[in-house]
């Protein structure tokens, strides 16, 4: 048995042990028992049998055991002190341990508590009244909540609980009272990096107008907080969301361009330029773990492209992955960015050289390399995307090919604009204008592809067993087939069509199943909204309470908010464009009174709550206080999801597919039942059109 075999056995056994323990609980007694058993097996194989296959199995089992032990050690339980306080108002103090992300509506940061000697992570979602920084010591008073999984737009459950847990976060707080006790704590290097990043971001905003500046922030810093909902949906629909994420793929493109620009210099200088670019990227993102992982992946890709020795780079890639999951074993099963980055790096290292040979008709070598990398990454990552995200973009390849060739130049100009602007806004003016032209084209192309009919389709179900089968075929073709028949290397690309065709065919099959399910849901909706009572006018119940009201999840207190309608509103009236503007009349005093009746502080930060019409104006609802209640955006489902229902029902009523009275009655009784039956494609279309903020 060679050292190479031992290395791969150890790494893969360790990874599988971590993966197995990620989903199954194991006690230390069980681990000890199997540990002793495995050691006995190894001793038996080495000293008595002296056969390779027994040694092979033994090494794998020992590595598997160590993987279980590593996860077990990292899997610290939540604090029992905090567990007893879930759902209660608590006071905690702690330190901000990461860079706060700030959007238009709220700030989000991680607080590491030092209350009751419990070192626990809490995700804080706060109003934008004050700016918080890494290293701030805070005193916080608010409702302690347990994170909950939620359903994505594609109909898949997102494991939000473990997504936060991988970063040591066990709880959340929304809009608590916050007091800054002191500042300047934490790691001095991280404070410097975050301060530099903030100045860089400000220089970008000063040189480039919105929304182009938001895209540049995503490209250079991986920031998407300033993206509107409609822009985010456009990038998802076109399969371009990866360009505004912290990924090794992006860094590889830019570092590769830098090396080509420095190609006239000795090779060592060119390599140094590429490595410096990767280092710069990691620095500008604040040295975040995702950025460091992206930098490692990008370095391995550059090494493969420079040396052409993918075998040794593959070994380095496996080692890098093993070290990363050794540091944080949660990322293997619960960090999609790590999983996508690892798969994309494999594709770029192993698939790109094969595909590039078939793209020789593209004369510009750099463009040919980018095209090959794009195709390779798309083919290899697609099965995982369908399983994990449930989104099949039919325009992803042309959209990526239309935009990706310009991304390295855009990012380089972005870095120049940012650093020059940090010195003086005047210095950042010219590169900022050039950057703006490129960014404007990229946004235009993204929106163009996103608005093509059926640009993206939802695949809510793609079985994990099929994903394993597809990647087993990939592994056989790329590695085992190549080893057995190296003389047929040129035919490997044709063989790669097999797993790709399996993926597309399976996606088509499951989409058809999803389509049939949608038709059934549509029929149920028609029955729900066209009942025998539809000809009778909707008459809400009387309002019996005017204080001490409590929301019930996404629903109001029925005694305080039974709903109210304009009795003379007709279908013809509500379907006239601009109707809601002519009848909307909710004063500030009335809004304040609604919050007071529900014992909720007023005012709330924009986007956290809205005074919602239970029966929307677009369905003939009135402005009476009996029809108003404070509805939150989070946790979901919240007012964004109800907005979708409101738009959908108005479209149904105005098209004649639903009765107005039945729609009014249903939205008062159980609007969530309608939301759960709306086809995913229609939800996506509404969100794309209205950006998730319909304000009906």
Automatic annotation (TrEMBL):
A GO CC term assigned to this protein in UniProt: plasma membrane
Membrane-spanning residues: 6-24, 31-49, 55-73, 234-258, 278-304, 316-334, 340-360, 367-386, 406-430, 461-480, 492-512
NCBIfam families: ComEC_N-term (TIGR00360)
The protein, known as: ComEC/Rec2-related protein domain-containing protein
Sequence ranges assigned to domain DUF4131 in this UniProt record: 33-178
Domain called ComEC/Rec2-related protein: residue spans: 219-481
Keyword flag Membrane: yes
Main location: membrane
Keyword Magnesium belongs to the record: no
Keywords assigned: Cell membrane, Membrane, Transmembrane, Transmembrane helix
Membrane topology recorded in Swiss-Prot or TrEMBL: Multi-pass membrane protein
Protein's cellular compartments: Cell membrane
